Amino acid sequence: MSGKSPIKIAPSILASDFAKLGAEVRAISDAGADYIHVDVMDGHFVPNITIGPDVVKALRPHSEKTFDVHLMISPVDLYIEAFAKAGADIISFHPEAGPHPHRTIQAIRAAGAKPGLALNPGTPVEMLWPLLGDIDLVLVMSVNPGFGGQSFIESQLKKIEIIRKRIDQENPGIDLEVDGGINFETAPRAIAAGANVLVAGTATFKGGEAAYARNIATLRGAA
Ligand SMILES: O=C(CO)[C@H](O)[C@H](O)COP(=O)(O)O
Ligand SMILES: [Fe+2]
C-alpha cells in the first residue's frame, strides 16, 4: 500500500450466525472491526440471496462503526435511497449491474452515502478509470461474487497493484478494499499489493466469539 492509510478490517457478516445478527455485529464492533461489511445479494446478479435494507436498518443501532454495504444486485438505483436511509455509510455496486454507473454514483452521493465501485475478477481495470475521481472506495473482488468461504484468486493482486498506483496519483486517500478469500496467509500479500481495507468473513468468524478480537488483530497485523 501507499504507506499512508492505516489498515482497516471489514468483517463480512455473511459468515456470522444469522440467527443472532445483532449480537454478532456488536461482537465484531467490540472486537475491533473498522467497517461492518454487509453483502447484499439478489439471486439475479449473483446466484445467492441474502439481506435487504430492513435488515440493515435493524442492525444499525447495534454498532457505531461504518456500515460498508456491498450491493450485488441489479438494478441498483431503485434501492439506493432505501439502503442510505437504513444507515449505509458506504454503498458499493458493480458497474455491470446497470447502464449508467456514473449516474448511480451521483445517486449514492445525493442519498448521503459514500459511493464505491466493485470490480469482479473478470472485470477489466479500465472500467474504473473514468470514475476514479468520483468515488470514495474501490472494491476489488478476489473471488467471484455470491458466496463466502471461496479461495483467493491470485491474479487480482496485480490488479490491486495497478489500482493502488493510480489512486495515489489521482485520488489519494480513498479506500482500496479487497474482498474474498482473505485469511492470515493472503492478507499480507493483499496489503503488500496496495489494499488498505480487508474484507474478511470466514477468517473473522472462525473459532467463535472468543476468537473474533484475535482474528481481527492478526489480520490487521498482517501489514
Ligand atoms: O462479497 C462477498 C462474496 O460475494 C463476501 O464479502 C466475501 O466472500 C467474504 O467472505 P470470505 O471472507 O469468507 O471470502
Ligand atoms: Fe462483499
TrEMBL record:
Active-site positions, per UniProt? D39, D179
According to its UniProt record, the EC number is 5.1.3.1
BP GO annotations: pentose catabolic process; pentose-phosphate shunt
Per UniProt, substrate binds at: S12, H70, G146, F147, G148, G149, D179, G180, G181, G201, T202
For this protein, what is any one GO molecular function term?
metal ion binding
Q: Tell me the residue numbers annotated for binding a divalent metal cation.
A: H37, D39, H70, D179
* Catalysed conversion reaction: D-ribulose 5-phosphate = D-xylulose 5-phosphate
- Coiled-coil ranges (or none): none
Which GO terms of the cellular component aspect does the record hold?
cytoplasm
SUPFAM superfamilies, per database record: Ribulose-phoshate binding barrel
Look up the record and name the pathway of this protein: Carbohydrate degradation
Q: Which domain of life is it from?
A: Bacteria
Name its co-factor(s). Answer: Zn(2+); Co(2+); a divalent metal cation; Mn(2+)
> Pfam families, from UniProt?
Ribul_P_3_epim (PF00834)
Q: How is the cofactor bound, as the UniProt entry phrases it?
A: Binds 1 divalent metal cation per subunit.
User: Which keywords does this chain's UniProt record carry?
Assistant: Carbohydrate metabolism, Cobalt, Isomerase, Manganese, Metal-binding, Zinc
Task: Please explain the role this protein plays, according to its UniProt record.
Answer: Catalyzes the reversible epimerization of D-ribulose 5-phosphate to D-xylulose 5-phosphate.
Q: Describe the family membership recorded for this protein in Swiss-Prot or TrEMBL.
A: Belongs to the ribulose-phosphate 3-epimerase family.
Q: Which PANTHER family match?
A: RIBULOSE-5-PHOSPHATE-3-EPIMERASE
Q: What is this protein called?
A: Ribulose-phosphate 3-epimerase
**Where is the organism placed in the taxonomic lineage, from the top?**
Bacteria, Pseudomonadati, Pseudomonadota, Alphaproteobacteria, Hyphomicrobiales
